[in-house]
Design a protein that fits this description.
By secondary structure, the protein is an alpha+beta fold. The protein is 25% helix and 29% strand. It contains 11 helices and 20 strands. It starts with 10 loop residues before the first helix and ends in a 6-residue tail after the last strand.
Length: 397
Amino acid sequence: MTYDHQRMDRPGREKLGRVLMESGALSSDWASTFAAVDRAAFLPDLMWPYDMAARVSVTVDRREDPGAWLAAADSDVPIVTQWDDGAHPGPGPGTLSTSSSSMPSVVYALLQDLEVDDGMRVLDVGTGTGETAGALTHRLGPRNVTTIEVDESVSARARERLRRLNLDPEVIVGDGFEGHRGRAPYDRVLATVALRQLPMAWVRQTRPGGLILAPWGTVYGNVDAVVRLTVEGDSATGAFTRPVEFMKLRAQRGSPLPHTDYLSAGPLQDADETTSSLTEEEFVTGRFTDLPFVLGLRLPRCRHAVADKREGARPVWFYSLADMSWACVLFRDGGRARVWQWGPRRLWDEAVRAYEWWRDRGSPGLHRFGLTVSSSGQRVWLDNPSAESWPLDVSPA
């Protein structure tokens, strides 16, 4: 059976467009691009949309169920298009998602924040399926868009899809961290991969007054935030705008946490045990959804993991990336939290100090924080760059 999504009725896509407009994610100046650049044209037959309710990726194959495939393409959900750098072909989900089609609401919110004008040159870091590069090309023209992707096979498929749609930006295979000097200086740099360290190459390849828009976060957890930087000479500075979750730049993914190695270095029976008055509602499940992001700004070289709650108890683990120190706090319904700490760093004590620092400043959300990137490193600040600020340690473990 031949299947052509372009010739089918698309009530789902029409509905998606209305929802994006009503939510403000899709602005009027990008509406014609949304209509012309169809997400479905960039998706493979076999893909894995994210079930937002069940919080799992599910398998959808256009060859077996074209209706379900099209419904997923026209939904505001992220869709994994590659697992394990291509080593896992499917049909089920793999271990690590390594390429995807982002939620349309996220894509068009980023494009709106980019504030492009006719004639601007844009570097798109992380080609992926090619949809974002296609949207930029539709708006700005092929001579003004350069897109770079580290995975040669992903890049080749995106190039083929773009050319099929008569959208032909410059498609580069390379390390996005290095940018691309060929068409610099750029007016805008847009990253659709998350970073722990923003490269000076992007700053140097962007004209003064130009913008860099990228998902950024610390090693503390998986929640990142979009940072919108204005280039000023040899530095760039700007505020965080909204929380997001993006796949990490390959060079900055980090290694899996060797939990057993930490416990082998410091067994539970050798740890110091105390209690804490902080509650699960305050630290984990409360209304301050920006708290994990903020704690990451104050806890250098520390990763944390929140376990599932069972029988009224939830453990939260902390791991030092500077040594083998670890901590565990066990929150329990109706009782004080129990704490175990081992190693030179007292990670729970550090976490409590970070929490108290945040609370004493009125529990600021991420939009009150910002980032400055220069040749001397990265500095995080609260409210404005000249106020309270501190360097961020991103040195490897």
